[in-house]
Backbone:
């Protein structure tokens, strides 16, 4: 059967079971949009290409499937870069299709030409420029395979206009792709070593990261922890991979981690880290990270191992398969934790927790942002998918919302992209229309992609925006308060739109909440509305995120904030 | 850990931008490439890249891991610790100025350097050898006045198989 490039593209998307594309048209992709016009595949028209990529990324994080977007050449393509870099840092499987000028014009600085494969080379897992229609089908198949296999990541496919118009014989069954990735099988010898280490350990600790969620290994991780009573801490990306309401859960570690999680890391004698890469926000000063511990690191990507922290026992393998094998090994060899030592260790952790609990003080007439987040958990019973923006809103969410399930906390961890949360929430809601989806936002971040409210309104994508409006670029202000003697250089955001009117102008329900007593009712009301809603919570302006490991300090030396906050 | 020169042999798919990916990955992560040579193998779709980089074992392992992540990289091997043979080549032009002419001719004879072009004005020599041999030749050529020089990157082949 002879088909045009644009037809082959859509056929291949159907092959890959793509049901939804986030995109924005333009000259170089007119042929493709013409095919979409006749296609069953649903297309969501975003209002900015960055939004398309974040939405595809949110879709991928919520479902574990590959998210897809489609944009035009030149500025359409360059607008995707922040989204791609965001997905790349967090290893999220997406495929981004960009239009390109005809191959005959490439290199001529043609109208709306950009070397998008060159630009995105360092921030994609891989990218392709399709030079002929004959290689199109295999390239698309390969792109999806690369995006989702091994350590996942974004793949960009650049589609010159003439390649989309050209015809070729098409037979999907014949497409062969090369195998690029060897999944390592864990070596029994290493499992025996873990067994030995566990036998000797008095203070073991599990540390879970994004790799556990991406590798769908949350069940195995939980089994390991619960069966053998090993306490668990996690990175920002790992939240949800172990139930946040389980007594063994210590909360997040790192810069804004809980006191007891950081103390546990600092005092443990065995740290089993799964699917983490020891980012600097997690470790504090490297030299003082887990100083008493032997570290076992399980990861699919050899480049994550021994990069930041040198570990005693690296195990390269898929997190799920490795944990499964480990569980089996421990069961077969009848591993029994030493009761007394384990009780002592858990008791010690409980004391740290009692000494410095995560807390805040909701009194008076001003809403505390943490209170909004806790009330959100209460109102939804935790049965909601949460995206965040970046800054204090993100950290308070990580601290105060108890995530029980994987793929329910969706945040830009590695790149820290303001403007991520709203389009990501749209992507999530499109993927899982039966779920409640909330973007917990700051007033700075929300303005970075606020145009996507129009997308939500157009398709009635009923996301809820919980705007923690403090009139500041809060997290930057916090650093200015702590490290620059309160010189608030360019962080005051008091000049802002009326968010309620703005929401309404977009066709979104707007609500303003100014008193603590109104918080719960407002949230209940918003969740009862089957429409996108923006709730403008006027919160305390100069609240800080505590506790905090100051830059250059070790995890054991946390700044706990003022006493008033702690009690 | 001791820093030294490592020879890394990389098999890659012969794609248009594979070299840019490798150079970009290493450059972007702050690793240095000392020398580089690239060519096709007996299979047209596969190329071999031999690069050298100076670092301690941990740094070199990180380089290998970063390269291994690239989709177009088939295999990466550090040849430093396996038995292998190494060669570099230099093309050197020496001008036959009246004051150096005899000295140059004598040196070419004594060292049995291979002359590939010779005329009244200059000679072009081809020097091939391992790094030590090339360094020695350079030391001997220096006083003769090197008018121009091109050196290749190092190529290497393991002894096994
Ligand atoms: C695109 C982008 N630009 C700048 C920053 C730096 N930055 C990190 S947090 C932050 C402040 C965020 O303010 P806001 O969205 O109001 O959230 P808050 O911290 O007040 O909760 C800024 C500017 C960033 N992370 N992303």
Residues:
């Amino acid at each position: 059967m002879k088909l045009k490039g644009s037809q082959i593209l859509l056929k291949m998307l159907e092959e890959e079971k793509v049901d939804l594309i986030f995109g924005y048209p333009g000259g170089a992709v007119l042929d493709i949009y013409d095919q979409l016009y006749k296609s069953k595949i649903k297309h969501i028209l975003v209002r900015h290409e960055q939004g398309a990529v974040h939405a595809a990324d949110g879709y991928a994080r919520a479902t574990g499937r590959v998210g897809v977007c489609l944009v035009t050449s030149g500025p359409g393509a360059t607008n995707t870069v922040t989204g791609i870099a965001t997905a790349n840092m967090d290893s999220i499987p997406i495929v981004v299709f960009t239009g390109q000028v005809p191959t005959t014009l490439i290199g001529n600085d043609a109208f709306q030409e950009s070397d998008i494969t060159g630009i995105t080379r360092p921030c994609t897992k891989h990218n392709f420029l399709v030079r002929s229609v004959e290689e199109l089908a295999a390239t698309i198949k390969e792109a999806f395979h690369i995006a989702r296999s091994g350590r996942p990541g974004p793949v960009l496919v650049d589609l010159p206009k003439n390649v989309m118009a050209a015809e070729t014989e098409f037979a999907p069954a014949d497409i062969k792709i090369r195998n690029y990735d060897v999944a390592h099988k864990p070596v029994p010898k290493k499992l025996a070593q873990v067994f030995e280490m566990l036998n000797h350990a008095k203070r073991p600790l599990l540390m879970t990261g994004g790799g556990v969620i991406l590798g769908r290994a949350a069940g195995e991780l939980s089994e390991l922890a619960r069966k053998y009573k090993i306490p668990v801490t996690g990175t920002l990306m790992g939240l949800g991979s172990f139930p946040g309401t389980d007594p063994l859960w210590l909360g997040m570690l790192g810069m804004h981690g809980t006191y007891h999680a950081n103390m546990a890391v600092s005092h443990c004698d065995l740290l089993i880290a799964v699917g983490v890469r020891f980012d600097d926000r997690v470790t504090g000063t490297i030299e003082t990270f887990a100083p008493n511990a032997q570290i076992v690191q399980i990861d699919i990507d050899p480049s994550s191992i021994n990069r930041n922290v040198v570990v005693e026992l690296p195990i390269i393998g898929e997190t799920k398969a490795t944990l499964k094998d480990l569980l089996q090994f421990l069961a077969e060899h009848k591993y029994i934790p030493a009761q007394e030592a384990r009780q002592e260790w858990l008791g010690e952790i409980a004391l740290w927790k009692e000494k410095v609990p995560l807390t805040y003080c909701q009194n008076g007439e001003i809403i505390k942002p943490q209170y909004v987040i806790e009330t959100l958990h209460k109102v939804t019973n935790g049965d909601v998918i949460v995206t965040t923006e970046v800054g204090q809103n993100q950290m308070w969410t990580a601290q105060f919302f108890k995530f029980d399930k994987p793929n329910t906390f969706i945040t830009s961890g590695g790149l820290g992209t303001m403007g991520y949360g709203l389009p990501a929430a749209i992507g999530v809601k499109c993927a899982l229309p039966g779920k409640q989806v909330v973007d917990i936002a700051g007033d700075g971040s929300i303005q970075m992609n606020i145009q996507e409210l129009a997308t939500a309104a157009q398709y009635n994508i009923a996301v809820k925006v919980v705007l923690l409006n403090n009139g500041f670029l809060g997290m930057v202000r916090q650093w200015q308060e702590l490290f620059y003697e309160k010189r608030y250089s360019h962080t005051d955001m008091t000049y802002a739109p009326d968010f309620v009117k703005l929401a309404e102008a977009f066709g979104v329900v707007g609500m303003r909440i100014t008193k603590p007593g109104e918080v719960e009712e407002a949230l209940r009301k918003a969740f009862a509305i089957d429409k996108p809603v923006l709730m403008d919570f006027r919160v305390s302006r100069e609240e800080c995120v505590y506790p905090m490991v100051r830059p250059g300090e070790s995890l054991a030396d946390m700044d706990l904030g003022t006493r008033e906050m702690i009690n | 850990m001791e820093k030294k020169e490592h020879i890394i042999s990389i098999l890659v798919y012969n794609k248009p931008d594979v070299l840019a990916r490798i150079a970009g990955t290493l450059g972007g992560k702050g690793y240095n490439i000392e020398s580089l040579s690239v060519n096709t193998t007996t299979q047209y779709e596969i190329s071999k890249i031999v690069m050298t980089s100076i670092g301690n074992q941990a740094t070199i392992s990180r380089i290998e891991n970063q390269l291994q992540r690239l989709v177009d990289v088939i295999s990466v091997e550090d040849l430093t610790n396996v038995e292998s043979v190494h060669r570099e080549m230099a093309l050197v032009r020496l001008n036959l100025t009246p004051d150096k002419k005899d000295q140059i001719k004598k040196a070419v004879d004594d060292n049995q350097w291979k002359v590939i072009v010779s005329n009244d004005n200059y000679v072009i020599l081809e020097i091939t050898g391992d790094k030590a041999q090339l360094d020695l030749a350079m030391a001997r050529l220096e006083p003769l006045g090197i008018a121009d020089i091109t050196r290749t990157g190092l190529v290497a082949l393991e002894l096994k198989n």
Remarks:
- The CA atoms of residues 522 and 528 of chain A lie 10 Å apart.
- The longest helix of chain A spans residues 339-355.
- The radius of gyration of chain A is 24 Å.
- Chain A has three domains: 2-174, 188-355, 369-538.
